[in-house]
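Q: Two folds, back to back.
A: First:
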Amino acid sequence: MGKQTVLVALGGNAILQPKQEATFQNQYENVKTSCEFLAKLVKNGYNLVVTHGNGPQVGTILRQNEEASHVVPPMPLDVCSAESQGFIAYMMQQALYNELTKLGLKKNVVSIVTRTEVAKNDPAFSNPDKPIGVFYSEEEAKKLSEEKNWVVAEDAGRGWRRVVPSPAPLNIVESESIVDLIDAGHIVISCGGGGIPVVKKEDGTYEGVEAVIDKDRSGCKLAEQIKADIFVILTDVENVYVNYGKENQKALTHVSLEELEGYIAEGQFSAGSMGPKIEAAQKFAQQGGTSIICALNKADLALEGKSGTRISK
């Protein structure tokens, strides 16, 4: 049996913790810590593909665009997404290469600016609901909405924000190139922030659109297209729980799809946090793969079946 390919989806907190100042140094230190754990997976003999969130970073880039718009023309959202992919990938490429070097492993770490195809008639385009960027007062938000043709909405009592469509990923455009790189023995960083959203035109060409794709859904689509063996979603908790925060709270360890479907039907997983991760993990397991949801610092143990929540048929 050849090496198993593991696709690891890193959450945004692996790059920037809540309430942390978004300096390069803070983000690089977090990425370095993440890469210490990822390097262990390579040492343990897995092929590794890494995807990551970009929420805070793309928010910062959008804010820079806004603040400097009187001096430098602002860039569209797909370009801001590409920018965030580039600088996060650079941090990861550097940190992971350095960690592998410390372990005496000679490996190339390669980043791919990745596009994700979505349908131009996806219902999300007529119902934008994904908040991005900074918070505004109601008055500022409505003014920006008129000036820039934005859709704005109130976000969980914290203020007003721009909302954009979050369409379903249909195809990771660069997936064949990613397979070539894995086959050549390289570690690949790709599909950052869910990928840059593009639509295919009738002549077969692509164009960017203003949207944000859920990173876990894109991670699942990429895992499927590269025929990964294991899809690992890293989060802040060691396990998925049912009855979370109640007296009868229970950590899930090995879960069959049938069991998981029962918990989903009971409404155990909230749409804002664990829900999208469960949806992506379930979908990959339905295709015959193994999905794991676990804490970053226990990723190596989770692959050995000693930590985390493992979902399979």
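A: Second:
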Amino acid sequence: MAEQIPLSPGASAVDPELDAARGDKTHQIAPDLAYRRLGIVNVVFWGRPGAGDRQWVLVDAGIPGTKGMITEAAAERFGPGARPSAIVMTHGHFDHIGALEDLAEEWDAPVYAHPLEHPYLNGRASYPPGDPSVGGGAMAALARFYPRGPVDVGSRLRAFPEDGTIPEMPGWRWLHTPGHSVGHVSLWREADRTIVAGDAFVTTGQESAYAVAVQRAEMHGPPTYYTVEWDKAKQSVAKLAALDPDLVVTGHGEPMKGPEMRTALYRLAEEFDRVAVPRQGKYLDHPARAEDGSAYR
């Protein structure tokens, strides 16, 4: 499997000394933004440390079996018993919704997602199957066995406002960034030029178990084995690169910052067909679309 666009350790937004001093089991990358790695995926916490009950937001919900790690990190960061004002979903693949049903019920929290993603979150539809023919690594090879849902948080499910705002995250906007899934969104804060990208692009080779284990840093297109609309994935990366971000945190890999990160993101957008799109794959010729219903099994 070819490496995409390498990133040096100097582009990492993680400060190990600061994290060790704080000791809340998260990596803080802005005064009100932190993430925790849960095996193969990241969850993001928005809100200042000690914010208290209903004064913070969880972005995505990890893999199955990680509820305890998420609630532990939340309690240590925001205070014992502190519940989020909302759970915001970039999309609903199995590695992002593992603890969603349990957390939404325990916290009695609304769940925000793009309307095109709702069928996967209200029990109506399963995702298209993963494509093991792409990627060239163990994670891709196992794609056919990954859970495809759906989950059902329909009673708490909310659509993002059409004006682009996020009700519980002042200063942030949601951007529709389809390709990896039909209702995928990324989050953007212009004040400090920060992107929470979900899986629109990632910063490690998610197809490779080795790259995932060591978190080898590279600017990488969306995980190939789950991406169902490559034309839209290309457009989404171009949209995010055009924002000229200073800081990005993705669903997989370390958060990255600064000029090196931007240069790599620009290059990914410009050379997307060459460096991100697999040479073969079931969704290259037969994308799964919301428009014709093929995205909803």
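Q: And?
A: The longest helix spans residues 258-270.
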